[in-house]
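Re: the request from the purification team.
They wanted to know what the chain is likely to look like in 3D before they choose a buffer screen. I agreed to run a prediction and write the result into the notebook, where they can find it.
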Amino acid sequence: MPRTKHNRNPLGSILEKTVVKNGKKIKVYDVRKRRRGPNGKYKDKTKRCYSYSEALIELGNKQATTPEPVKTSEHTLYELIEYFRTEHCKPAVFIGNERISGYRQDLKKIKAYLDEYKDFFPDVSLRDITYEDIRQYAELLAVTPIRRANATNAAAKLPSPATINRKLSYLRRVLNIGIRKKWLTTNPFRDGEALIRPKAEKARERVLTFEEESALLKMCDQDYLVIETERRGQPWKMKFANPHRHMKLILFLAIDAGLRKSEIFLLRREYVRLDERLLFVPAEITKARRARTIVITEQIENELREYFKIHGLLPKA
């Protein structure tokens, strides 16, 4: 049906065309609107659009909706750090073997990291923290020697890659909490190359040699220790009770059973099954939150029986 003055759109018309742009054929929509000029005559005004919906908006058949401006967060970095300290820097809470909140690590060390962030970064708005700021912080960590209490300047050394990665990981975690709170839109860590480099950490391959193991066990077997020294220019011997006798069981648990220090110190009587020669390590005391059952050696069994006998942990015969 041809258009007439009765069915013509009074706002104008949309003309679909095919044009070549950057070597490709694309569809465009020319919107032609008629406007009355100051002299009373009509004049056509054309505008090119690249989608039909855009053309409808331009023509006036749809109301153009202006998107609401994104509300920029006025929360500061220090505010986020203190929120993390209060709400997240807590002992770990588990459901079964799954951690749902908190941290198993030393909380004093984590809080020291938070204080260090406040010493380096200014108290600015979160949106003003950039990747370059974090890169400069990582660079400062790499070139600043660690000076421990009561240590001379000669004893100071540069931090290990593992220490740098740990501090950067907690900073990334703090910023991710800001995203979860909608105080921050994106994490600045993602705006450049990776700053946390696990591959740079030194692999732990050092193990005791047979000679070192024998020397440690021999030291634990002695009832007394004798130290030879000089006193007023004369040879002098010191003899005292061996304080390392209790270490023999700990050494066997570490060497033969492969237990970590924390796992050894958290062992309880109910974890040991001497009749079956088994040692049960529950998930809550392991680093990876995975339970293990270990077959104990004859040396461990003998030392455990002696330990239980001394401390009255076995039934009397």
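For the purification team: Residues 62-73 have pLDDT under 50 and may be disordered.
Please add any questions underneath this entry.
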